[in-house]
# Entry
Amino acid sequence: MSKRAMAIAEESDMGTSTTVPPEAMEQRKRVAGLIRARMANPATATEEKLWHELKAELEKERLTFRS
# Structure
């Protein structure tokens, strides 16, 4: 790994080690709970249709990266 890549990796490690305020942590827990509750319910037919349309659109517009 190059020195530049190592420096970036170290910076990202240091950036995630900061403490989170209790209010932000409570909000994260609340959002996680809402996501879990939503995931516990099966998707409706309308939601399934929307996901299939989105997937088809993304497949159609897939970008190709060339160097």
Q: What stands out?
A: Residues 30 and 36 are 10 Å apart (CA to CA).
